[in-house]
Amino acid sequence: MPVLAFDIETVPDVAGARALYGLEASLADEEVAEFLFQRRRASSGNDFLPLHLQRVVVISCVLREDRGLRIWSLAEPESGEGEIIQRFFDGVEKYTPQLVSWNGGGFDLPVLHYRGLVHGVRAPRYWELGDEDREFRFNNYINRYHTRHLDLMDLLALYQPRANAPLDELAKLMRLPGKLGMDGSAVWPAYRRGEIGAIRDYCETDALNTYLVYLRFQLMRGIASPAATEAEFAAVRSHLSAIDRPHWREFLAAWG
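Now predict its structure.
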């Protein structure tokens, strides 16, 4: 089965906020976003916005199949949010991969559900629960305890939120690069500065960190041998070495 590790990046849905709360059209995007943040702080004590008000600007993917490894992003400005989400689910439709994420069950996929509804996205393979394909009755993308979607953070914590670990710290403990130069809190300021390329690069490195942690997890659970795991790490290094982009050169340098 192909493996698709993925990560998303989001910004406040300022257009949606204007419609929901009747905000004046003259307000700048930054002012609308600050209204959302302040409203959230008043209700919950933090400014992490509700998932349905987070607009998807990047989805980064690492696909491993028999033909090799591919890393790419679906992102603004080439595509709008609806097209980004639709193309992601089109990939699920085409490959029926094992999805691998870090907190994908708690963040990435619920965001894609809500925003997909907003844009009329179709994802029949993803939502298959066994009515058309009996195999999905016993292993589908939706059930928390099935493996077609493997949320590594959730599983490694044994479904206990207080046991969750940050991807960045765990990756670095494993001598992997972890986050390079940006974290989730920096995405909105970078987006306001028009730095969508930097956001895309950051998202791609997070998706690859997730895939590399997955490889070590496969070793731990006995699915892959030590030799096969090292061979795959070497294949990833070789693949990155052939890509002439600064964030991958930095990633390799941090890998050591």
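The two ends are 30 Å apart (CA to CA).
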